[in-house]
Specification:
The complex is a heterodimer of chains A (158) and B (381). In chain A, 24% of the residues lie in helices and 21% in strands. By secondary structure, chain A is of the alpha+beta class. The chains are: A alpha+beta (158), B mainly alpha (381).
Chain lengths: 158, 381
């Protein structure tokens, strides 16, 4: 019984060690598996993963229209005050006044890319982009306005 | 050398070029140099000392590029096994990375701690390097290329390689640093334990060859390597030798001497600059030495791959130079030890001693009985 346990341990451990060596041997003989990106060299062809979170952007369509209603859900959701939305009252065609955004201020230097604002947004107005090359010489340039000049709210988004 | 060549017929040399190349033996070169030294200096101490100097310079000229190559190889092997690219900026495919590292170490300040024992602190790296170089003496690099073919070659190797622990203990003790001392103590426990199973696994080859002389061991494998001729016991002792020698040279998974996460760098925590480079050098020389000894004992050293009485096959194998056979086998074992390092997790101290005293030692003791039985009954091929 003792001998059975003794040799059992030896064979079990030898088996698991050989399994590990098989995996590293496989990786050694298959250079295609290498994950390293040679970043500044392959800048032209670099493809980031879709779920990579680089910065918050607000997509605009060809008519310079965005989907942000100015509900400020993102501003409330943000844990470190990255987003500041300034709203204005806009007179509509039928004479009614409605709340619209004036400026969507985004402080990239405060952002931790936690994605909570994107999750909180009820109208899918903001998304996370893949761009990660944010280095600048002046910190002030990291304060961004996400809505383009003269942009309007898209029809049908409430 | 030029004077010696004058007497030869140049035409005859040309026609025999190919034959000479194929059956080339380093014995003629060494005997020419010996004769030339004797003729110019007389048969005294001067010739002997200058021969020793030539051997030493050749050895260093061989070892330093070898260590550069092994360092590069290790980094590349590690990288590929971890799905990385490894060094690829300095020189073609990063091959000059180690040269750049060495230049960096040369220019670094060689610091000696104030509270350390300065004499021992500076002596330790020298002892470590010298012992690992001494072990090179009985290794047969190629046919007739051996520094010192002494009659107790294997015994010499085992005894000299255990001196290395003194250098490590000295480094740890004199550094006046808890990490260094702990690392050195662990190294002492480790080398003393694993020496036993190394000795027993070497012994099982000695039982079959009946000689401690390196050249005899190689010649005894001229009709097949021991790992094939000696059946299962040889396989077991080969595996035990590889495991125990990995522990002996303090490489991962037995690198708890310098366990980076626990002891920063173990016994060489306080070393920097060239003194640190000496430890690095000795690590790679040791790696080469244990692989070369494993290749000599189990895989036939420089002996080409021969199968019994297949004369034609054996003759074809003889066309590959013996030095290539030796280096190929050695690099194969070095690769295996490197793969160990980048595959297995490090053992704890208790696991290390359990592995040795509960598993390797009893198994190698039974194994040597089996090998003796095979040798007495003549069951090996």
């Amino acid at each position: 019984m003792f001998l059975k346990d003794y040799f059992g341990v030896i064979f079990k451990s030898a088996k698991s060690l050989l399994k590990g060596m098989k995996l590293t041997g496989y990786y050694f003989t298959h250079p295609k598996e290498i994950l390293t990106e040679q970043y500044p060299d392959n800048r032209a062809t670099l493809k980031m993963a879709d779920r990579f979170r680089g910065e918050v952007v607000m997509p605009h369509d060809e008519n310079n229209e965005h989907r942000c209603t100015g509900c400020q859900a993102c501003e409330i959701a943000c844990p470190n005050g990255t987003i500041k939305i300034i709203t204005k009252q806009e007179v509509q065609a039928d004479g009614k006044k409605k709340k619209r955004i004036d400026t969507f201020v985004y402080h990239l230097d405060l952002c931790t890319m936690c994605n909570l604002c994107v999750v909180a947004c009820p109208s899918d107005a903001i998304i996370m982009s893949n761009d990660f090359e944010h280095s600048v010489y002046d910190k002030k340039t990291l304060k961004k306005v996400l809505n383009k000049p003269d942009s309007k709210l898209m029809e049908g988004v409430e | 050398m030029v004077d010696l060549l004058k007497g030869y017929n140049v035409e005859k040399l040309k026609s025999e070029n190919l034959r000479l190349l194929l059956t080339y033996s380093f014995a003629s070169l060494s005997s020419h140099i010996h004769a030339w030294l004797i003729s110019s200096m007389g048969d005294g101490m001067a010739a002997l000392v200058s021969e020793m100097l030539i051997v030493g310079i050749c050895l260093i000229a061989f070892l330093v590029p070898l260590c550069f190559f092994l360092g590069y190889m290790e980094r590349k092997v590690a990288a590929f096994m971890q799905l990385r690219l490894g060094p690829n900026r300095v020189g073609p495919k990063g091959s000059l990375q180690i040269v750049a590292d060495t230049v960096k170490l040369l220019f670094k300040e060689g610091l000696t701690p104030t509270a350390s024992d300065k004499f021992l602190f500076n002596l330790a790296p020298i002892i470590v390097v010298v012992t690992s170089m001494l072990v090179m003496a009985p290794i047969a690099f190629a046919k007739d290329l051996q520094i010192w073919d002494l009659s107790i070659g294997v015994l010499y190797v085992t005894s000299i390689s255990s001196i290395a622990v003194i250098g490590i203990l000295m480094a740890g003790w004199s550094s006046y640093n808890k990490y260094s001392l702990l690392g050195a103590m662990r190294s002492g426990a480790q080398i003393v334990s694993y020496e036993l199973s190394i000795g027993l696994s070497i012994l099982s080859v000695i039982v079959l060859t009946g000689s401690l002389k390196m050249s005899d061991i190689v010649m005894s494998q001229s009709n097949g390597w021991w790992i094939f001729k000696g059946h299962l016991p040889m396989w077991i002792s080969f595996v035990i030798f590889i495991i125990a020698s990995t522990a002996e040279i303090n490489r991962a998974p037995f690198d708890l001497t310098e366990a980076e996460q626990e002891l920063t760098a173990g016994f060489h925590t306080e070393y920097s600059g060239m003194k640190f480079a000496m430890f690095l050098l000795s690590e790679y020389i040791n790696l080469f030495v244990v692989s070369a000894i494993a290749a000599t004992l189990f895989l036939g050293g420089w002996m080409p791959f021969h199968i019994g009485h297949w004369e034609l096959f054996n003759h074809i194998m003889d066309f590959i130079p013996s030095s290539i056979w030796f280096m190929g086998k050695t690099l194969f074992i070095i690769f295996i030890i490197m793969q160990f390092r980048w595959t297995f997790p490090r053992l704890r101290v208790d696991q290390l001693l359990t592995l040795e005293w509960k598993y390797l030692l009893p198994i190698s003791m039974v194994n040597i009985l089996l090998a003796t039985l095979i040798a007495i009954m003549g069951w090996h091929f």
